[in-house]
Amino acid sequence: MNKLKFSLIVLLSVLTLLACKKDKVEAIANVDYSKVEIPAFNADSAYHFVEKQCSFGSRTPNSEAHKLCGQYLIEFMQRYADTVYVQEFSTKLYDGTVVKGKNIIASINLSATDRTLLAAHWDSRLWADQDREAKFHKTPVMGANDGASGVGVLMEMARAISNKPTTQGIDFIFFDLEDQGAPSWADYEAEDQKDWCLGSQYWSQNKHIPFYTASYGILLDMVGYGAARFTKELQSMGYAASIMNKVWDIAKAKGYGNMFVDKESGGVMDDHVWVNHYAKIPMIDIVQNDVSGAFFPHWHTSTDDMKAINKQTLKAVGDVCLTAIYSAQ
Length: 329
Fold this sequence. Notes:
Order of helices and strands: HHHEEEHEHEEHEHEH
CATH class: Alpha Beta
Distance between the termini: 33 Å
Number of domains: 1
Number of helices: 8
CATH superfamily: Zn peptidases
CATH topology: Aminopeptidase
Structural class: alpha/beta
Helix content: 25-40%
Strand order of the largest sheet: 1-2-4-3-5-8
CATH architecture: 3-Layer(aba) Sandwich
């Protein structure tokens, strides 16, 4: 995921929506989110799911680790979802390299019309181009936080929901090829940053079910760092302010206000952009925003490994997202 520049087409879309469109989902008034009953989110389990993904190695496109991890995720979600779709596709990286992608979609209560979309990306970056040491700039990233953390939280959420069934329709999407945008050392600049988020671009224009839609969506990206700081990202606020405000209200009520900072921040290029832009589903992004202005110190480096993962951060994000779901029942 890239945040270095703000796409013109996305900026125009946000401004248009701000002027012409209200969010599809409004925050529920007078709800005490601290008292909403949710299934137990096990931080140890979530941590294990992150660790398991990393045990395969870097989940880079066309690699054996990518293949094995994909099989693991599919088999896991088949245990806890009613239906699992595997959306395979081929595309090209910035330099013309052809890669195979695989979006994994797992659905609960498929017949329900009121649906919530929960997403994260499961690939890891081909190049540690932000590493302090140049020798790592062309080596793969493990992606414990940048990728595996969001997927691990969603996996534990799926397990938790199976213990306290809901009548809502819930769709989990593990997007592929999110993190393969041109490296900083390449002399390349894509129009509208379309070299990033390839899996969500594909799914948003080729949905797994024709005419699929959801009331709202939540994207998780880099949600396991110990010094967690989630801010109200600009594009999320532009597309779905009421959803983001509700999620931040939940976090405050649950005692996680120190992580979910009530402060607006700049826009980032992430999977939610294309879900909003092409699929027309209002989706927010819960994404790490370090006080330094970067994502987090290990972003796109050789040190984004399990040492960067904190169990309590995983639990906080899981609790907040589960409360968003169960408070709407």
